[in-house]
Sequence to fold (323 residues):
Amino acid sequence: VMKRTILYLLLLLASTRLSQAQEIANPITEGSWPDPTIWRGEDGRYYSICTGLRRTLVSDDLFNWRVENHSVIDKEAWSEMRYVARHFWAPDVVTIESQRLLYTTLYNSAKESSIGVLKEVSPNRFVFHGVVTSSIDTGIIDTIDPEVVVDEKGKRVWLFFGSIGKMHRVELTRDGLGVKRGAKYQHIAGLTDKENRSRSKVFEGCYLHRRNGYWYLFASAGWYKDHTYRLVVGRSRRLTGTFRDRNGNPMTEGYATPVITSEKGDFFYGPGHCGEIFTKDGRDYIFYHCHNRDVKPHQRPLMMQEIKWDKSGWPYVEGGKPR
Fold:
């Protein structure tokens, strides 16, 4: 009887912990936190920065976050970055060959935009290394929203980026600090804003997630400031392959499968530009920004939501909307 009682209590405790993991009070930031990136430090804590790069979010458990009013960007790095651009958007923190790197948009205009990279020289202190790619050099307008990944074999490094000038992919050097010599820029998703005035097929804010033999390309479509903005996805067996929606249509033609959407009148609206997906206690959680009616226009607090996978391997959230 005693053994049964102990077993029951252990099962009850495990069940309670799992149920608590689902209790998320959105938004998880009071202020705006657009275009988030999240990583786990060597100390076991989770960290996040966003567009602007001025503040840092810290969490001990992935669910409860606090703001630390300091930047991970070195003071000298700020001066070097300001020499290139006036605005700093959509960071992406990734580790390549044991070196933590921070990629960010360096923006003056759609025709004068680039992606820069910074190197971590001590915990959460990054120094500016230089510009990786520039719209002035390539002619790809809106060279923004970087996402850098290493392929499944751990040998090739790829940069995905873009918005109103279409989403592109290009191979980087093994250390991730520059474009590989002779590498070609390839259109991999979305139309231009001139081809698609409603922006329903214009993709930006990409994020790549590897799961069960597929690469999932998450992106945002629609107008970033209203209810048409939404999180969509396509997938490919190969990182260098064609990403397609659930029906097999290519993302290069503007097709994608909705993941999180909103409608006019919803309290939470315009979900998009997701950060990384993390697994905790057997569940997957996705981070993204979203408007709500309690905040000023264009402010986009950080949201966190459990993401699930159907029998065919496609991601979804319960109800299909932010909550």
Remarks:
- Residues 2-21 form the longest helix (20 residues).
- The chain is about 10% helix and 40% strand.
